[in-house]
Every structure is written in structure tokens, then in C-alpha cells.
Design brief:
The protein has 310 residues and is of the alpha/beta class. It has 2 domains: 139 residues, Rossmann fold (3-Layer(aba) Sandwich); 150 residues, Rossmann fold. It is built from 11 helices and 9 strands. The strands form 2 sheets. A 5-stranded parallel β-sheet has the order 7-6-5-8-9, with helices on both faces. It has a 4-stranded parallel β-sheet with strand order 2-1-3-4, sandwiched between helices. Helix 6 links the parallel strand 5 and strand 6. Helix 5 packs across helix 6.
Length: 310
């Protein structure tokens, strides 16, 4: 069996391409398993995993929990919103208390960039980053890449566009790193005020023209505007944003090809994408949800194999 070089999944930037390839290969195996009548395997029967979410995220937490249970792991769910973290307990105190219960692996979402790495450096457990601030969201990038491979095959040389609020999106950053490592050409598109100044250094193209970008790309990943992370007015009005950057049936009808359409969710229907497009045959949004379970099963399984070797 092929093994990961990495002990943790903290981000895509430092993840070797070989690890990405192994994870995606195992994801295909686990997708086949979760489509069987009996969807559960006894692989991690003696493994305990804690899901620690300092930010709310129903979809990601449920996807991880389902993946863990499909692998027969014991699961502990911890919500910081209702915990003693509010009383001043530190991140390390919280996690060490959980690890004292003999937890083997921690899945954590936190509002601070770098929180997952800090945790991995300070506790004796495998750590999976389920999103750290505006930094990275590695399992989302992996499931997006897996979904794209299902539709487009090898991603080398394929043109992938990421549209919307790039500045505040950890999904965008992880996707850029992942797609570039898999050989794809990547373009980000959105208002200048929502594209970070450093983006050129990541080797991506930049555009403020959605129609031209749709002509260029094979697939488009639509991101929502993260109003909760914004402190300034980054565009004149929501109507202006929708006029320039909404993916709708009229725009798609101008193309002489079919695109693969992704969205990491949650969708602001009628803002960055219309319901007609989100629910269309070109959309793989529901496939992304299913693939998320398979990819997270692969990540958890492969990191657990690493525990048995260390």
C-alpha cells in the first residue's frame, strides 16, 4: 500500500503532489464503497477522532462525521460555542483535555490562520485542518479536484476559473495550490477589491471580466461573497456585483461549450449563481457533497495508517 509522506493535513501548499495523488486514488475506492448497500467498513474500529469546531460549519462537520462513521471510528464532537473556551480556556488546554481521553486524531476548524499548524506542533495527535480563518481548507480543495477529475480526467493543461470573493476565501487559496500541483491552468476572476495583491506570486491569471473568463475555462468554481469577513465596501452594490459576476443561464447560453460548474457552498442563490444554473446538468454541486465524504474517508484512513507506522 502507498503511504502519505505527511503526518497531518494542515494545508495544500506544503502537501507533496504524491500525497494528493494517493488521496484522490483512495477517494475513488471509498466512493465505490459508500455506494454499496452496506456502506460501512471496519477499518478504523479502534480509532477515536475528535471534531473540534471553533466556528460553525454544519456541512463540513457532518461530512467529516459521516466519513468517520463509515470507517467505524469512534467520534467525539466538540463545539467551542457551548464550551469552557468562552471562560478563557486556551486552545491547547481544550485539546489536551480531549487528548487525555485517548483521542487519536483531531479535526479542527478555527477562525485564526495557522491554528491547525500550531495545534499539530503542540499535541501528540494527527491533525486535519477543516478550515483556518482565511488561510486554507485542504479537504475542500481535494474534493473539488476529485470532482473535476471525474468530469475532465487528467487536470494537466485544463483551464479552471475561480470566481468571486478570492480575498476572504480559504477555499480559493487551497484550490489554487492543489490545481497548480496537478498541472491545471488557474485564473481568478472578481472585483479588483476582492482579489489579493499577492495573487500573481501564486502563478495564476487575474481577470475582472467574467464573460471572457467563461470563454477561457473548462470549469468554473463559484464562490460566495463572505460578507461576515468584510469590513469595507468592496463593490458599489450587490446589484452591481450580480450584473458583472453572477453566473446565470443567459451568460451560459452565449458559450459554444458546456462548462463544469462547482460551488463549495453555502450557495447564495440569486447572487453569485442563479438556482437555474446551480441545479442544471452542468453543475456538479451535489456530486461535490458526495465526493466530500469519500475524500475525507481517504484522508482519515491514510493518516490513521501513518499512526500505526510511527
Amino acid at each position: 500500500m502507498m503511504h502519505l509522506q505527511s503526518k497531518h493535513l494542515l494545508g495544500i501548499r506544503d502537501l507533496p503532489k504524491s500525497d494528493i495523488t494517493i488521496i484522490l486514488e483512495w477517494a475513488a475506492h471509498f466512493k465505490e464503497i459508500i455506494n454499496r448497500p452496506i456502506k460501512k467498513v471496519p477499518t478504523l474500529r479502534d480509532t477515536t477522532i475528535a471534531n473540534i469546531f471553533f466556528e460553525n460549519s454544519t456541512r463540513t462537520r457532518l461530512s467529516f462525521e459521516l466519513a468517520q462513521k463509515r470507517l467505524s471510528a469512534d467520534v467525539v464532537n466538540f463545539s467551542a460555542a457551548s464550551s469552557s473556551v468562552k471562560k478563557g480556556e486556551t486552545l491547547i488546554d481544550t485539546v489536551n483535555n480531549i487528548l487525555a481521553m485517548k483521542v487519536d486524531m483531531v479535526v479542527m476548524r478555527h477562525s485564526e490562520p495557522g491554528a491547525a499548524r500550531f495545534l499539530a506542533e503542540n499535541v501528540d495527535s494527527r491533525v486535519i485542518n477543516a478550515g483556518d480563518g482565511t488561510h486554507e481548507h485542504p479537504t475542500q480543495a481535494l474534493l473539488d479536484a476529485f470532482s473535476l477529475q471525474e468530469k475532465l480526467g487528467d487536470l494537466k493543461g485544463k483551464h479552471i476559473a475561480i470566481v468571486g470573493d478570492i480575498t476572504h476565501s480559504r477555499v480559493a487559496l487551497s484550490n489554487i495550490h492543489c490545481l497548480k500541483k496537478l498541472g491545471a491552468m488557474v485564473r481568478v476572476c472578481g472585483p479588483t477589491t476582492l482579489i489579493p495583491k499577492y495573487i500573481d506570486s501564486l502563478g495564476v491569471e487575474v481577470s475582472n471580466n467574467l464573460d471572457e473568463t467563461l470563454e477561457w475555462c473548462d470549469a468554473v468554481n463559484m464562490l460566495r461573497i463572505q460578507m461576515e469577513r468584510q469590513t469595507d465596501a468592496n463593490f458599489p452594490s450587490l446589484r452591481d456585483y450580480m450584473l458583472k459576476f453572477q453566473l446565470n443561464a443567459e451568460r451560459l447560453s452565449q458559450l459554444k461549450k458546456e462548462l463544469v460548474i462547482l460551488h463549495p457552498g453555502p450557495i447564495n442563490r440569486g447572487v453569485e449563481i442563479t438556482s437555474q444554473v446551480a441545479d442544471s446538468d452542468q453543475s456538479v454541486i451535489l456530486e461535490q457533497v458526495e465526493n466530500g465524504v469519500a475524500v475525507r474517508m481517504a484522508v482519515i484512513f491514510l493518516l490513521a495508517q501513518g499512526m500505526s507506522r510511527s
